[in-house]
Structure formats: structure tokens, C-alpha cells
Specification:
By secondary structure, the chain is of the alpha/beta class. It has five helices and nine strands. The longest helix is centred in the middle third of the chain and has 27 residues.
Length: 174
Amino acid sequence: LGALNLVNVAEVFNPGIFSNAAANMNLIAGLVFDINAPQQGRQFDADIPSHREWCKKVVQEQKPMFLIGSPLCIAFSALLNLNRRNLDPVKYDELVRRCILHLYFCLEFYEIQLKNGRYFLHEAPWTAWSWKLPRVKAFREKPGVQVREGHHCPFNQLTWDQGEQCMVLKRTGR
């Protein structure tokens, strides 16, 4: 894989979980673009247009064989929407705008990956209403795109429940 691409795996909106494990699988990790994972002395913030352009430039140069995207999705949460009437409408609208911006930013990368015969994984809660957005639905219908339901537990995501550590059974789409 490394001979064809500068890197094997890169991450957008993911704090380096896959990239940190890449070396154990003899893979070359690219940059991680997440607000919690500074790269090259820069804090990546997708709300800033110049940061998005920098991210696009680097990913297009590195040509990762596999790109993982896990955009901000709190606004798409079924739980948040149950409580929506108690939220400040202006703050809620801003949160939705930000989440859609992050989601569509990832879709741009997925399109590049797809056109160039490379792979991507989009991780989002299975019950999120973002799966119903027209642009997401249209992308899901493209040849070569597959959607699968999975759970976090096979990836060793843990949480605490009643004082005990246990596996997360949260359903996600991939």
C-alpha cells in the first residue's frame, strides 16, 4: 500500500485512534485533523475556512489509501432532538449549521477518495438524522459506496456503567 500512496490512513474529525494503531499493522499514518489533535504545530478547526483548505491540500498531497471521517454529529442526535424545545433556538441552529458544515466537508473527501479508487469510512450514529439529509442520501446511492451498521464494542470502545467498565453497544453506520 505504501508504494502507491504517501500514507495508508488519514483521519478527519477523529483524534488519531486509527493512526495511532497504524504502526502496529505496518501502515503509514498521515496527519490527523481533529481539534483535539494538533498537527504540525497547528490546531485544526473546521469552522475556519483556511483550516479546511489546509486540510484539503494536505490530504490531496498525501493521497491516503484509507480516510476515516467522523464529523461533529451532536446536532443530529435523537436524544438532543427530544430536548430541542428546551434549547435556545439560535444556539441550536448554529450547532446544526456547524454539524452540517463538518459533514459536507467530509463528503468532499469521500468523493475524492471514491473518484481515485481509494477508500473511506464515515462513522456516525446509526439513529442520527444526518443519514436522511438529501446530499447524504444521494452520496449513499453512488456506485462503490456501501453502508453498514456496526457497533462500537468490536473496536474496544469502553464506558462506565454503575461503577463498572463495559463495552459500548452504540450502533453506528459505516
